[in-house]
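Hey, I was hoping to borrow your eyes for a little while. No rush at all, and the record is pasted right below.
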Amino acid sequence: MAKNRAANVSGRVPPGQYLVEKWPVLSYGPTPRVKLETWDFRLFGLVEEPVRLNYQQFRALPQNQFTADFHCVTTWSRLDNRWEGVMAKTVAALVRLKPNARAVTLHCEGGYTTNLTLDEFLDDNVVFAHRHDGQDLDPDHGWPLRLVVPKLYAWKSAKWVRGVEFTAENRRGFWEVRGYHNRGNPWQEERYSDQEDDEA
């Protein structure tokens, strides 16, 4: 596995990053204790009709697998992560968006939030993952469900996701209001809000 992950890294590691083999655990606050019998997932905000799914209903949605790299704003990168879960496009198709929906806020256990533009959320390789490298996610890494957004820094890949709110404006989430970049593109080293341009 190590040889495969380290192979052909040219052009895959953003500036300012170094490679790791292990998967570091970085979280704000304690790992929540999730009870699947009461767990639910909501789609709400600028939608014609909100949707609420229990765990069994969410896991019954079409499943996909893909491999992608993972870049943390704290400067480490882990290549060739194998994710399994439900694509964000599949989840979004469960609701009819209102015309002024332009962004999403991800709501998570413990009150954590992060934000994406609608285009970023609907990108082809954004997934609500429940498995990583052939195993169920560890609770410290977001079980039972985390979002994975490979093209952006990993704080956008929110752990313990419980819902998606569709919004008209790209409202800043937990780390974004605390000085992190509103977009977080690792290839442009968009780490902090003082680097933002008008499009962020």
About this structure: The chain has four helices and eleven strands.
